[in-house]
Design brief:
- This protein is of the alpha/beta class.
- The protein has helices at about 5-15, 30-35, 50-65, 80-90, 105-110, 125-140, 150-165, 180-190, 210-215, 235-245, 255-270, 275-285, 285-290; strands at about 25, 35-40, 70-75, 95-100, 115-120, 140, 170-175, 195-205, 250-255, 295-300.
- About 45% of the residues lie in helices and about 15% in strands.
- The strands form 2 sheets. It has a 6-stranded mixed β-sheet with strand order 1-2-10-7-8-9, with helices on both faces. Strands 5-4-3-6 form a 4-stranded parallel β-sheet, with helices on both faces.
Length: about 300
């Protein structure tokens, strides 16, 4: 496997003092609703408002002088902001390709870090072609949002912190889009808590990961339809390989369940999270998760908090 726990531990040491050690919050009311003890790892309180800063910081640190001409990526928002800030901190340019439909709060976040933005049509082909043109023009180095060992290792540090602080957990769940966060989470969890059960949360309107694991082969995302704008991308071969050997299940949730979970998090944790984040709470409140036995404690990674407006 291309990423292992040694890579995660090395990433943790490399980005110490750069990324925030985000808090873990609990709520007796949410515990009661779920019938289990819940531990929320608040990556919505990370720099740039999302876990993505971990992977971007690790990738930029490893690249070093290789990125002297700058870095380039394509992203709908959180990874874009993460690369922009990580590049600014290292004193190199950042060239970000964003779909024209990207949330305004995320566009503003990228601009606030001095990155150059190039907008494109909201398709993967357009993003990739535009990024290629930008790199040919600038000589920048590409940092993929999830198909990158350095990024996956960096994302795995969120689970490392959570387990170190919360102690043994019976299960851990994280959202899944391209699979970088959940891949890093899975590698870390298996190493530190080999008996813990690992789950993914995915919107039913963009359920390529659930379809892929069920079919035993990678199925690309087509025509996603969900409010979870951070979970619209397909898995890659690397993340599919990791997740297919680590996950017990991916639980799909409706947009309405996500909205209700956002409301519950606001009311009981006093935080605003983006829809992608709320999938994890929506998933563990689903009947199929509630029916699982032997799970008394669950770690939930809240992936980000960048949202233009609340859908309720």
């Amino acid at each position: 496997m291309s990423v292992d726990f040694d890579d995660v531990r090395a990433a943790a040491a490399r980005i110490e003092g750069i990324v925030a050690h985000t808090p873990i919050l609990t709520s007796l009311a949410l515990d009661s609703l779920a019938g289990r003890r819940l531990f929320f790892k608040c990556e919505n309180l990370q720099h740039v408002g999302a876990f993505k800063f971990r992977g971007a910081s690790n990738a930029l640190a490893i690249l070093g002088d290789q990125a002297k001409n700058g870095v380039c990526t394509h992203s709908s928002g959180n990874h874009a902001q993460a690369v922009a800030l990580a590049a600014k901190q290292r004193g190199v340019p950042a060239y970000i390709v964003m779909p024209s439909t990207a949330p305004r709060v995320k566009v503003d976040g990228v601009r606030s870090h001095g990155a150059e933005i190039t907008f494109c049509e909201p398709t993967l082909e357009a993003r990739e072609n535009t990024a290629t043109a930008v790199m040919e023009r600038t000589g920048a180095t590409f940092v993929h949002p999830f198909d990158d060992e350095r990024v996956i290792a960096g994302q795995g540090t969120a689970a490392l912190e959570m387990i170190n602080e919360a102690g043994p957990l019976d299960a851990i769940i994280a959202p899944i889009g391209g699979g970088g966060l959940l891949s890093g989470t899975s590698i870390t969890t298996q190493a530190l808590l080999p008996n813990a059960r690992i789950f993914g949360a995915e919107p039913s309107g963009a359920d390529d990961a659930a379809q892929s694991l069920a079919a035993g082969e990678l199925i690309p995302q087509t025509s996603p339809d969900t409010i979870c704008d951070g979970l619209l991308t397909s898995l890659c071969e690397m993340t599919y390989e990791i997740l297919s050997t680590h996950l017990e299940a991916i639980i799909t949730v409706t947009d309405q369940e996500v909205i209700e979970a956002m409301r519950l998090i606001r009311d009981h944790l006093d935080m605003i999270v983006e829809p992608s984040s709320a999938t994890v709470l929506a998933a563990i409140l689903r009947p199929e998760f509630a029916a699982l036995e032997g799970i008394d404690s669950v770690g939930l990674i809240l992936s980000g908090g960048n949202v233009d407006s609340l859908p309720f």
